[in-house]
Predict the structure.
Amino acid sequence: MASFLSSFFKKETSVLGVDIGSSAIKIVQIKKKRGRAVLETYGELALGPYGGVEVGRAVSLQSDKLTEAIKDLLRETKTTTVSCGAALPLSSSLITFITVPPVPEKQMRDVISLEARKYIPVPLSEVFLDYSIIPKEETYVGEDESSKTEKRGEDVLVVAIHNEFLSEYQSVMSSSGLQPSFYEIEIFSSIRAVIDPGVATVMIIDMGARSTKLYIVERGILRASHIINKGSQDITLALSKAMSISVAEAETLKRSRGLKGGPEYKELSEIITVNLDYVFYEANSTLLNYQKKYAKNISKVILTGGGVLLKGFTDIAKISFQTEVLYADPFGKLETPAFLAQEFAEAGPEFAVAIGAALRRLSELE
């Protein structure tokens, strides 16, 4: 009986974080040991070949193909648990910021739902709606708390996900044998993995294959977001067309040389720079709007996503933003083998979302 009880009350300590991107799947398995999150295994699998296109290309797979890819990655990474947290793509959701008048807490959801209807282009019955009230600033110069509340009401972050998309995602997870305890928008997974505690305001640039996402985070709270419909595959396709080479050759050239090819790769550098200039222009516009609205500057830019690993990316980003620019280091929040430190530093930007989802799932076991 004693052995039965001990096994009955024993918790599963290993958990997964799952990030299904537009061009690849990333999975991370961690466990809690001596109060620290310890990395057990991780891996990435390109989705292009499952859709008949090149590695690095964004692809929209049918559920059965996506399930096949997840199972393949689980097998390759030798995961030992099905308990996980899953991140949803930002493109599947609508995120908006609203201000509602001060009302009793029991009426808050109804008031927020009424206000959210102005921003959500489909009936609320067709979406899963969630919200978070943004904590107010502790002090305002020349303004007491009561007058501030009366003027501004409550700032609220509203997230809406279409029920049909969520249902399809849940079906894929189930078919893959995984058991997510939650689904969250990739923004929040990423913030958890790359932002340290503190009051500093930072901008996260997440460049994927299909798009580039921008997040401005203040005191660990999302304050602004924006999607730029240009990603790393746009650079590859532009190179392929301009240089009359195959997409596969363009991808290889982009990854091997980037902006560090020297004079003999002048055309390569020019094409890449033109595409990045567009992304940075959009990012600076988002930043300027934030600065005008809140009268605050960012302290640094954090880079995530596979697209930011392009050689020379940080150099041009520092010139554009005129502030500190650094790669995300989500593996720094885990205990990892010291001899692989360089490998984890280089892989970090690609695994921010998966690690963030895994960290939340691990915290649920405490």
